[in-house]
């Protein structure tokens, strides 16, 4: 018995080059969306942002102390 060729169907999804507003919905009302997200999960944002700010503050203070250490 021989091999029987199978026809493959291919589906290609593309965007039209004439369609200019593809992602406009993502950028609509960004401040409103962000404030809604922040109000609904402010505790999560607090626990995410606070350690980052604290580490940045510590590192900047350490660098400044290291720069000033040779003066005394």
Automatic annotation (TrEMBL):
The highest taxon in the source lineage is Eukaryota
Topology of this chain in the membrane:
Single-pass membrane protein
Keywords of the record, alphabetical order, are: Electron transport, Membrane, Mitochondrion, Mitochondrion inner membrane, Respiratory chain, Transmembrane, Transmembrane helix, Transport
Which Gene3D superfamilies does this UniProt record tie to the protein? Cytochrome b-c1 complex subunit 8
Q: What is its main location?
A: mitochondrion
Name the coiled-coil region(s): none
Does Transmembrane helix appear among the keywords?
yes
Instruction: Fetch the Pfam families from UniProt.
Output: Cyt_b-c1_8
According to the UniProt record, one GO cellular component term is:
mitochondrial inner membrane
Q: Where in the cell is it found?
A: Mitochondrion inner membrane
Q: Which family does it belong to?
A: Belongs to the UQCRQ/QCR8 family.
In its UniProt entry, what is this protein called? Cytochrome b-c1 complex subunit 8
């Amino acid at each position: 018995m021989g091999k029987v060729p199978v026809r493959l169907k291919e589906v290609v999804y593309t965007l039209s080059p004439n369609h200019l507003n593809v992602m406009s919905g993502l950028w609509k009302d960004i401040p409103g969306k962000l404030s809604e997200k922040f109000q609904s999960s402010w505790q999560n944002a607090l626990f995410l942002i606070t350690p980052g700010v604290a580490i940045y503050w510590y590192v900047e203070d350490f660098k400044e102390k290291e720069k000033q250490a040779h003066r005394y």
